[in-house]
Amino acid sequence: MSNADRFAQRIVQIDGVNQFVLCRHDGHVITHNMEDCDDLASVATICGINAQAIQQAIGFSGFRCLTLKRQGQHHCHIFPIDKYFLGIIQNPETAATELVENVQRFLQTLVRKKPAPA
């Protein structure tokens, strides 16, 4: 099983994750659980790159999550992960703060498991 497959299996187990896409900064999709992931991949990439550009331009530290609110509580959350962006469509029955905290906790476990450079 590839790392992308393991990531996909774990991210969908997080309470509140309805749909997701993991893409590189150039928009190339790594993994997803959607029929058509192109729109979410484009939103995640464009918003993520622009948020990072704004952050650098005004001297803030990096963003942890960018939330785009939608009607019906199907919010879109974008998380930066090294050279990737994770876009998540929220399950409307879950509180946004709970989902963001759970995803950030999961992402922290990935950072801790990352091998040290030689």
TrEMBL record:
Protein name: Roadblock/LC7 domain-containing protein
Source organism: Geothermobacter hydrogeniphilus
